[in-house]
Amino acid sequence: MPTYLYECEKCGRFEEFQNINDDALEECPECSGEVKRIIGSPGIIFKGSNFYVNQDKKKATKSKATKSKEKKSEKVS
């Protein structure tokens, strides 16, 4: 279930777990005051075993290519 961020004028900001099909809250659960839904950036979760492995392989490949170019330039000089 997604987490929605709301703001009450009296109580401040709070988070609420709701089904995606549920209507937005109209009153604060603590003081029954009016609330507004705050639009925020979602949390990002990277899942999968290959995410970090792929990045490391690209870095290793680039560093090996750079080293081989340096060795070639040393031999030519």
UniProtKB/TrEMBL annotation:
State the residue spans of region: Disordered.
57-77
Basic and acidic residues bias: start-end ranges: 67-77
Q: Start and end of every Putative regulatory protein FmdB zinc ribbon domain? A: 1-40
Q: Which Pfam families match?
A: Zn_ribbon_8
Q: Which PANTHER family match?
A: CONSERVED SERINE RICH PROTEIN, REGULATORY PROTEIN, FMDB FAMILY
Designated name of the protein: Putative regulatory protein, FmdB family
* Organism name: Halanaerobium kushneri
